Amino acid sequence: MAEAAGEVRLIGAWPSPYVLRPRVALNLKGVEYEFLEVTFGEKSELLLRSNPVYKKIPVLLHHDKPVCESMIIVEYVDGAWANSGHAILPADPYERALHRFWAVYIDDKWFPSMVGIGKAETEEAKAESAEQARAGLKLLEEAFEKLSKGKAFFGGDTIGYVDIALGAHLGWAKVIEQMTGLKLFDEEKTPLLAVWAERFCNHEAAKEVMPETEKLMEYAKIRLGK
User: Whose CB among 23, 105, 144, 221 lies 3.0–4.6 Å from 209's, allowing a Cys bridge?
Assistant: First the structure.
């Protein structure tokens, strides 16, 4: 392991896809860390002190210095342990910009549309959100083809920045699929992403921290009031 637990701590909650991101990044780099688990909505003194601006998880504490926001933490982990494991972001500045762009797209556009399917109160609203989510996945399918350069992941031979950004949402995607009967990662419409999703979930850096679908489903029923 790259660093002793205690020197690296992560404040988070198991159902959060945003918390999953730094967990996968730390695993990729072989960094041992202490997971300080909290309940959604819980504002502990440590959290408020560590993230006084947003007051949200996740927060990484490295030698008691806080780093906030999931993809900023991922980038920090990549730089702080640059000599451990594979690089998460590509070295080329243009390639790095492309990966950051798609990570922002996932959070700003795609994920809200997917969540909108589960929250929809009418069939019309559900259909509209589903169409938006599927259109977004078509764009991400094209991005995968370009960024992966024919390899297994957005990051090439192994999990990279966009893989972490999108892969962290796969647990919730499975829940939405089961709750609504809709297929998002469709083998016919987005074959590359369908295969990639299975590959990501089975990667050693992700599989031990990916939430169980049934457990997440029970949590979702409470969270979404379904």
Answer: 23
